Amino acid sequence: MNPSIHHLFASGLVCPLDKNNVDTDQIIPKQFLTSVSRDGFAEALFYDWRYLADGSPNPDFVLNYPQYQGASILLSRANFGCGSSREHAPWALQQYGFQVIIAESFADIFYNNCANNGMLLIALSKGNIDSLFTRCSEGPQQWHIDLKNQEIRFGNNAALGFEIDPDIKQRLLSGLDFIGSSEQFAPQISDFEQSRKASQPWLG
User: Fold this and answer.
1) Distances 30 to 15, 19, 50, 158 between C-alpha atoms, Å
2) What tens digit of pLDDT does each residue of 15-68 get?
3) What CA–CA distances, in Å, run from 49 to 26, 53, 58, 119?
4) β-strand 151-153 against 159-161: which pairing, if any?
5) Measuring CA to CA, which residue among 123, 114, 124 is closest to residue 172?
6) What digits encode the pLDDT tens for the residues 61-120?
7) Over 40-65, what HEC string results?
8) Alpha-carbon Rg of the chain, whole angstroms?
């Protein structure tokens, strides 16, 4: 067994969605935003692309290809997650089964929403994205995402490094969202508040 196997954030089948500017309106169309629950969005993911007018699966859409059923890593192009800042978009992707999205770039709000929901987004250069799509054109791919060492491993001793914000990396490795991360510093926050009250009694 690979000695770094315990470092893996995710390991699974890759689905190549060869599109630029995939916006949140396509990821989760507006008619599915009325629910107050965070559940039940998997079937609505990419609804307008994924289904025909009669509700049957669109055989020409990549998520419906037999060889990509069960994919947990999504590969796409530039500006993924642009458009409105709906948090339902990462919910739908995650509930479908995607743990990792690899693209040339991401919309900022979408990126942060995904990170806060425990998903890993990897931004790579256009050249590297082109190379990954070439790999996918050769047949179904099983990749391993080593977050600790910041590498995408391809199963043949080849790997591609990636950059990630250290704070987001730490939160993903520890399984914490923004609130959980802040709560780690509760004793320090409490000490600071007490010291302020002691030096400035008018704060009450």
Assistant:
1) 24, 20, 15, 41
2) 999 999 999 999 999 999 887 677 889 999 999 999 999 999 999 999 999 999
3) 8, 10, 7, 23
4) antiparallel
5) 114
6) 999 999 999 999 999 999 999 999 889 999 999 999 999 999 999 999 999 999 999 999
7) CCHHHCCHHHHECCCCCECCCCHHHC
8) 20
